[in-house]
Structure formats: C-alpha cells, structure tokens
Amino acid sequence: MAAEYFSDLNYSLGNEDTKMEVDILLKLKPSRILTIAGCGSRALPLLACKPEKLICIDVAKPQLLITELRYAALKEFNYQDFMTFWGFAPYDKTDFCDRRKDLFTRLDLQDETKEYFAAYFAKVGWKTLLYEGKWEKIFSVMSKVVRLVLGKAADESLRFDKLDQQIHYYNNKFPKAKWKLILFLLGNKSVFNALLYKGDFIKKNVPETHFEYYQEAYQRLFTEGLVNKSFFMHLCFQGKIANENGNTIEADEENFNSCKEALAAGSEVKIWEKDLVSASTELAGEELDYASLSDVPSYFSGELEKNFMQKLLPAMKSGGVVVLRNYLREPEVDTSGYEEITPRFSDEIRNERVQMYKVRIFQKN
Ligand SMILES: C[S@@+](CC[C@H](N)C(=O)[O-])C[C@H]1O[C@@H](n2cnc3c(N)ncnc32)[C@H](O)[C@@H]1O
What we know:
The protein is of the alpha/beta class. The protein contains 17 helices and 7 strands. The two termini are 32 Å apart.
C-alpha cells in the first residue's frame, strides 16, 4: 500500500466485529497471540481469554499510537471512565469534553503518543476520537447520503429487537430499489480509492461484482441478525453508534472486566511497529497459538500473497490457529502445513455483525 495511506489516522473505532474473535478465543484459550493492531479495538479485547502474551503489530504509526492510547485507558480507567473517555453510548449524550481532558492527563503514555493526542484532542475540542479516523469519517459522510435517499427507513431499520419482525420489514417495506442505487453509487472501487486507499484498494478476485458482494453482505446483515446490534449498520444509517445496542465489544462491561483481569494476572502486551511478514520471520520459534491477520493479506499480491502463511508457519505452535478476514480478495496462498477448520466456527462467523469479510480459519498441523 502507498506510504500516503499509512500517514494519517485511518481507523479510530475500527471496522471489524471483534466479538467474533473473542468468542473463538474463549473456546480455544490460546496463550500467545499475534494480532494486527488496527486502532487497537480489534486487538485489545482479545485479552479476555487471558493470554500470556498479546503481540500487536502494525505498519502505520498513528494506528500504533491509538492502540497505545487504548491500552493505557484500559489499564488506568474503571469501566465508566473508559466509556466516558472514548464517548461510547450512553456517555456520548452530554458534553463530556472537560471530563475527557481530565482523564487524558491520568494516562501513562510515551511522550510521542501524549503529544500526538494532546494536539489531536485540542484540534477537535476534546470531543470523542471514535469517529476521527478517515474510514469513520467516510462512513459519516456516506450515512448522510443514505439518510437523504432512504428517508425514515434509515431510522426504521435500527428499531427492531426481534429478528422475524426485522425480516418482515426488510422483505415488505424497506425501500430496496433506493438501497440498490446507494450500493451502486457508493459501493465501488473508485469511491474507496478516491476517499481512502489512494489507488491501492484491494484487487478483487472474488467472482461477484462489487455491487453483488455488498448487496449479499447487507442482505445477511438484515436477515441473519439484528441491525440494531451491528455497530457497522449504526455507522451506515446514523454515521455513529446511535445507542448502547450498537456498542462494540470493547465497550462491553464483561469484556472490559475480563481484559482488566488479564492485565492484573500478568498478561503481557507488546505494541510493535512491524509489517506482518517481518514480524512472522522474527517470531520464528515463538510458539504462537493464535494469529489474527485481519484483512491485511487481501492487499497482498505476487510472492508475498503466495507465501505469507509459510512465512508465519515457523512462528506458530502445532495446533495454532490463524484467522483471516478476506475482503473482496481470497489470497492465492500456499496453505500447506495447515488444515482449514473454518466450519468449526460457523456460528461465530454467522453472528459476526459486519459481514463484509469472508472469514477463513486455519490450524497448523
Ligand atoms: C487493512 S486495515 C483494516 C482496519 C481494521 N479492520 C480495524 O478495524 O482497525 C488493518 C490494519 O492493518 C495495517 N496493515 C496493513 N498492512 C499491513 C502489514 N503488511 N503488516 C502489518 N500491518 C498492516 C493497517 O495499517 C491497518 O491498521
């Protein structure tokens, strides 16, 4: 990907439903985890399985800084202060800016991280950082288009707490023609390239067109789970998490407490500026028993795409699990030495509330 793509804060809330991986980890109970950091929200909730070590890597400095900020907040704050600091519902209603400023002064951060976020918060008037990433800002703009075109259906879609009623609404009342128009206009490579990826958006190899891919994903979001429980659908229809139903796993009190317990029990967190392949090579012999690669391999091509699983193999313990979230591109990768175990986690995958990724799970022989 282009250097330009990595120079700003690209993600601040995150665009994955990390609950899926937390649920997988609570079954697997791994001890040594390698994970792509993203903005930290896809990495730190994994502590809930109380691993010995969580290694968070990323190539983008701002993503590592915000991961460190999340880690410091998790260590320092109680649940209410954590929710207030990040501005998750219901702590998004009143003006918590002064309180957020006070909380920030309590955090134990490296100088660079402290300076970066002191300046960032000052720029945004100590409002929440949750929607400051470029990706989140794009969805905020897109949601305005969605609301304009869909009208009251944008709010209606988020009001169901029974799946059969939601499906009935989707099949009979939801304005599907308008929705298709939105997907056709916004869900394509040119838009994402222009807005975020600077020409480096994924080179799709799945057979579906972009339009079909997104249409099928949204169809699943409407028919296989509650729209209201999907932070991603809140972003699509409201531009932000509109209420507590849409909060992500890091804002879940049980997950928060489990992660705090893990830290108190000695779980080690390493935040490391590394690309996936260099990290894999340097971690040879590390006996990792879980690797969470996000959709990073979908951006690979050529030799890198073919061999990243082989590069990772010496770092993995026998029986160790690798989770890929393929997005528009299924990597053409050599998986020898691994067995695919995706069907073992079909419930977790079906319950995932973003549905844009084709999750594939492998286990080292
Ligand atoms: C592809 S993005 C998607 C964002 C992510 N889904 C989230 O919710 O935060 C995942 C992260 O991978 C990082 N990344 C991209 N290529 C990488 C590589 N080769 N090695 C390590 N990290 C990489 C990006 O900087 C970004 O923070």
